[in-house]
Write a structure and sequence with these properties.
single chain; alpha/beta; Elongation Factor Tu (Ef-tu), domain 3; Rossmann fold; 7 helices; globular; Riboflavin_synthase-like_b-brl; flavoprotein
């Protein structure tokens, strides 16, 4: 358990599905997972605040990556501890369809563990009161198993691809940002400047705040700004939704050397950049980023 808690303290590193990741090489973000009886390695957070870590069941000693995009792999739940919340693709049985076949719920989540970790990977998942997938995860006990596969390829990050990356995250949308942040900071040859605007409902909802504060304090190329809807009396960060003023003050200006990453709930996405299209492509850029002069090739929506 002590080792597991230390891993949580270090959480925020990227994981590459389908291949090893070296410093400076492209990183794939996203993967598939399915619940038919078990689960992969991840952290469960939020109202339930369950943290889960799973070991791969395969006893073969040959080196393997965490996931396979063409094959469901079983993972076994090893441990659960209290934490906070967060998002790969998992599938859970939800009954039967009209033909009597099992129906599955599909959900995407983003790992936060190091790509070089062997035998496990970690996810942050927010547990919603009526969430079919997250409630299933929250109910798992040590020894339970889930089937997982991936990746679902999204953004390919490579070192120094842009001079300045701005990030706008809401709630569990911090997970893909943490992947990229950690990839940049662990590579001494990556000089990318990173600015993060992170919005939450309250100070208590800020995921991995201690980790983010530690990273920003020890790395001059990372700046983090928090804003919350319901601040406490002693709250010193921003207040309310992310505004034009916050973006102008905290993020890089529109430029060919700028990339703005956005990930959060639908309401926030619509306000900031517009959500993805129905086919999950990037869709039209709208919201305050368009109003401030950013173009579609300067913005990526997770």
């Amino acid at each position: 358990m002590a080792v597991f808690l230390k891993r949580l303290a270090k959480a925020a590193a990227p994981i590459a599905f389908g291949g090893q990741t070296k410093s400076g090489s492209p990183i794939r973000f996203g993967a598939l997972a399915a619940i038919s009886g078990g689960i992969t390695s991840y952290y469960l957070f939020s109202s339930s605040h369950d943290l889960v870590y799973l070991d791969q069941l395969n006893e073969d000693t040959t080196p393997k990556v965490a996931l396979n995009p063409d094959k469901w792999i079983e993972f076994k739940l090893q441990d659960k501890v209290q934490a906070s919340h967060n998002s790969q693709l998992f599938r859970a049985p939800t009954g039967q369809n009209a033909e009597g076949k099992t129906k599955y719920a599909i959900r995407p989540y983003t790992p936060i563990s190091d790509p070089d970790a062997k035998g496990y990977f970690d996810l942050l998942i927010k547990v919603y009161p009526e969430g079919k997938m997250s409630q299933h995860f929250a109910s798992l006990k040590p020894g339970d198993v889930v089937e997982v596969k991936g990746p679902i390829e999204k953004l390919r990050y490579s070192a120094n691809m842009k001079k300045h990356i701005g990030m706008i995250a809401g709630g569990t949308g911090i997970t893909p940002m943490l992947q990229i942040i950690d990839s940049i900071l662990k590579n001494p040859d990556d000089n990318t400047q990173v600015s993060l605007l992170y919005a939450n409902v309250s100070p208590d909802d800020i995921l991995l705040k201690k980790k983010l504060d530690m990273l920003s304090a020890s790395n001059p190329n990372l700046k983090v700004f928090y804003t919350v809807d319901n601040p406490t009396k002693d709250w010193l960060g921003g207040r309310g939704f992310i505004s034009k003023q916050m973006v102008v003050k905290g993020l890089p200006v529109p430029s060919d050397d700028t990339l703005i990453l956005v990930c959060g709930p639908p309401g926030m996405m619509n306000h900031i950049s517009g959500d993805k299209a129905k086919d999950r492509s990037q869709g039209e850029l709208t919201g305050i980023l368009k109003e401030l002069g950013y173009t579609e090739d300067m913005v990526y929506k997770f």
